Amino acid sequence: MGRKPCCAKEGLNRGAWTAMEDDILVSYINDHGEGKWGSLPKRAGLNRCGKSCRLRWLNYLRPGIKRGNISNDEEELIVRLHGLLGNRWSLIAGRLPGRTDNEIKNYWNTTLSKRMLQSHGAGCSNHPQAKPPLPPQAGGEAQAPPEGTSSSPIRTKALRCTNTVLAVAEGFHEQGRAAPEHVAEEDQLGDCLSIGSIDLDLEGIELGFMMSPWSGADGLGGQHFGAPGTEADDLEELLGLGGDGDGHGGLGDLELAWL
DNA sequence: AATCCACGCAACCGCCGAATT
DNA sequence: AAATTCGGCGGTTGCGTGGAT
């Protein structure tokens, strides 16, 4: 119900994109902008599925894409963010301007996961096969915070932070938001920080996730938020979610703890 | 020189939530 | 309010390439 039939089974081109297809897609999007992926192939004259067009554009053709040569800073950030967020590739990619979720996912699966295994052994909780921190449905409720409490999960929606937003412990509320959609919803942290040249924002990090046992047990990032087993209340206080809603000092502490 | 194998990457698939009708 | 469509995400697959045998 509510699901459109798969468009990829009706004689459409599949597999690797040709240079001509790329040209058509790029010129069309340059003229008409992104969006309307479902009807784009028809309008652009491409014999491709809309999803395929979107993927090609986002992962390869979009301006500003960095390809290859992931720097040490970026790699370190990926490891840290993966420790915090798990396999939320789009969320991680949102913190790495110019990088795509697909690239980061591939990089993790091919390079970093092996390194993690080597350096942490087979039991490493950051292995990609590790369970996601918060199973969305009923089975995972045991780990989820109780409903109706101030620690209900914050929605995780990847938001790009391509604009430089420098937020330090002092006065970050006055700093500009990176994008209109960053205008705070009440359940979002809505804060950015910067590591070197890499901008971060903490929007959408699930509190429940950060409290999940495996994210901080032996991983590479979670423990920076506090010792494993940190009480939810402590984290709420740390994040300023349970108090007066200001969250000012807590986030400052958080940043310091993380960095 | 030929074959095999492992690796990296691009692309596909299925599902889900948001938006729209 | 329910049904439908759209956009996006994460997992997986398959192909091309380079190194080893």
TrEMBL record:
GO molecular function, one term: DNA binding
Gene Ontology, cellular component aspect: nucleus
Chief localisation class: nucleus
All copies of domain HTH myb-type, residue ranges: 9-61, 62-116
Biased composition (Low complexity): 137-148
Keyword set, alphabetical order: DNA-binding, Nucleus, Repeat, Transcription, Transcription regulation
Region called Disordered, residue ranges: 118-156
Occurrences of domain Myb-like (ranges): 9-61, 62-112
Subcellular localization, as worded in the UniProt entry: Nucleus
Top-level taxonomic group: Eukaryota
Cross-referenced PROSITE patterns: HTH_MYB, MYB_LIKE
Keyword presence, DNA-binding: yes
Pfam families recorded: Myb_DNA-binding
SMART domains noted in UniProt: SANT
Protein name stated in the entry: Uncharacterized protein
Source species: Triticum turgidum subsp. durum (Durum wheat)
